[in-house]
Design a protein that fits this description.
This protein is of the alpha+beta class and 372 residues long. 23% of the residues lie in helices and 30% in strands. The protein has one domain: Urate Oxidase, CATH 3.10.270.10. Strands 1, 2, 3, 6, 7, 8, 9, 10 and 13 form a 9-stranded antiparallel β-sheet that branches. Strands 4-5 form a two-stranded antiparallel sheet. Pathway: Purine metabolism; urate degradation; (S)-allantoin from urate: step 1/3.
């Protein structure tokens, strides 16, 4: 009989520290800036013997990973930009440790917004502005050598809950013997938006100092290629504004049509973004049937006899089942084979894109299950 070691082999491994909570204040005189992050850093490289031979000599302790995260949060001049901070963390680990070849950094950023008093933003008082979070996923790659670091980075927002009470329709859809849905020309449109956008591969400058703490920004504002790139700190606001403003202003024929316009605007306004992904679970609001007490709450535009200047509707929110929409949008010049395609079947995802899709779908399912 074969022994266990002959029947299996280690295929892939990464490890590190997750949920490292960081809150940082940067003071510019009386004007304070704050960020709150949850950081995950995972390492991969020549670490297989720690699994196969119980060899801990190749293990950078996860406690050290945590300590380094806090140290960089203190000394990095890029702490206020989650994208730059993620790349700084990855560059440090990939440069300092000879046997570490890839570093995966994920940062979730909570929202803190300045309190306004008489129209003026307060210098050091903030409030939590919504439950949505910015999410940044960076991979720093040193497999070509410590002198030739590259990176990939995806940024975005999750759990952005939106609703509009009009300006949305759904008509002329496919009908057959299974169709019970009634076409509507005006309805509530509500969803929890998960948005991500990916930048082209990034060439990083390897640290020149012995401590490997240096992190150089290759493009500055005004340089060719800066606007809309990963180094442009206005990209997150433009992407968020494009999403919210398109949602509000579009006379929506369907969720799909509105998604398409959102992604078009993000691509158009940010030259450095190569693809955009949205996932949207619909939040349904069902009119309450009140015919049992003589009230019509189901027919659109029924005026109230008591308050004739108002149109009343009463709904009950439904968490499940819900519609679910996934959307991946490429910049045409980065994927010319899609330029004239009208098919949305079996797109040729890169492995990382497949992993992103499956991870986001699992995350959606986990959220639904947690709601009971």
């Amino acid at each position: 009989m074969s022994n266990a070691s002959e029947l299996s082999t280690l295929s892939y491994a990464r490890y590190g520290k997750t949920n490292v909570r960081v809150f940082r204040i940067v003071r510019e005189g009386k004007w304070h800036h704050t960020v709150e992050y949850s950081v995950e850093t995972l390492l991969e490289g020549d670490i297989e013997t720690s699994y196969t031979e119980a060899d801990n000599s190749v293990v950078v302790a996860t406690d050290s990973v945590k300590n380094i995260t806090y140290y960089l949060a203190k000394v990095s001049p890029h702490i206020l930009s989650a994208e730059k901070f993620a790349l700084h963390i990855g560059t440090f680990f990939a440069s300092k440790y000879a046997h570490i070849h890839k570093v995966h950094v994920t940062i979730e950023q909570l929202r803190w917004k300045r309190i306004s008093i008489d129209g003026q933003e307060h210098q050091h008082a903030f409030y939590r502005d919504g439950d949505d979070k910015r999410v940044i996923k960076a991979v720093v790659d040193a497999t070509a050598g410590k002198h030739a670091l590259t990176a990939s980075l995806t940024s975005g927002v999750v759990d952005l809950l939106v609703l509009k009470s009009s300006g949305s329709a759904f008509e002329n859809f496919w009908k057959d013997e299974y169709t019970t849905l009634v076409p509507v020309d005006d309805r509530i449109f509500s969803t929890s938006i998960d948005l991500s956008y990916t930048f082209p591969n990034i060439k990083l400058v390897s640290p020149q100092d012995d401590a490997k703490l240096e992190f150089q920004i290759p493009l500055k504002d005004g340089d060719e290629g800066f606007k809309g790139s990963v180094w442009d700190e206005d990209v997150p606001k433009r992407a968020r504004d494009a999403t919210l403003q398109t949602f509000a202003l579009d006379e929506s024929a369907s969720v799909q049509a509105t998604l398409y316009k959102m992604a078009q605007r993000i691509i158009a306004e940010n030259d450095g973004i190569k693809d955009v992904t949205y996932t949207l679970p619909n939040k349904h609001y069902i009119p309450v049937d009140m015919k049992y007490i003589g009230l019509d709450n189901l027919t659109p535009y029924v005026l109230s006899n008591t308050f004739p200047c108002f149109i009343f509707y009463c709904f009950f929110p439904v968490s499940s089942p819900c519609s679910f929409f996934f959307f991946l949008f490429f910049r045409s010049d980065s994927h010319p084979s899609f330029r004239h395609s009208r098919s949305c079947v079996s797109p040729p995802y890169h492995h990382d894109q497949q992993q992103k899709v499956s991870t986001r779908y699992r995350r959606f399912l986990d959220k639904r299950l947690s709601l009971g």
